Amino acid sequence: MKKYVCDLCGYIYDPELGDPDNGVAAGTDFADVPDDWACPLCGASKDDFSEM
Predict the structure, then answer these.
(1) In the β-sheet with 49-51, what is the strand arrangement from edge to edge?
(2) Cβ–Cβ under 8 Å, residues 5 and 50
(3) Are 19 and 7 in contact (CB under 8 A)?
(4) How many helices (H) and strands (E) does the chain have?
(5) Which of 4, 8, 21, 41 shows the greatest Cβ crowding within 10 Å of its Cβ?
């Protein structure tokens, strides 16, 4: 699975880790992350992420 980086703050979404603190289970591909999910560091929208 591909990792994605926040264009605003550099946070890396790693699908192997997910974002369990914000309701995204480990193993969740970025495409399957809910559209209303936001970067846990800066609050940027999913649209502000780019594939690494």
Answers:
(1) 12-13, 4-6, 49-51
(2) yes
(3) no
(4) 0, 3
(5) 4
Is-contact 2 32, C-beta < 8 A?
no
For residue 49, name the pLDDT band (cuts at 50, 70, 90). very high
**Interval 15-27: pLDDT, tens:** 999 999 999 999 9
Alpha carbons within 13 angstroms on the beta-carbon side of residue 42 total 14
pLDDT of residue 1: 86
Report how far residue 31's alpha carbon sits from residue 9's, in angstroms, rounded to the nearest whole number: 20
CA distances from 47 to 1, 38 (A): 18, 9
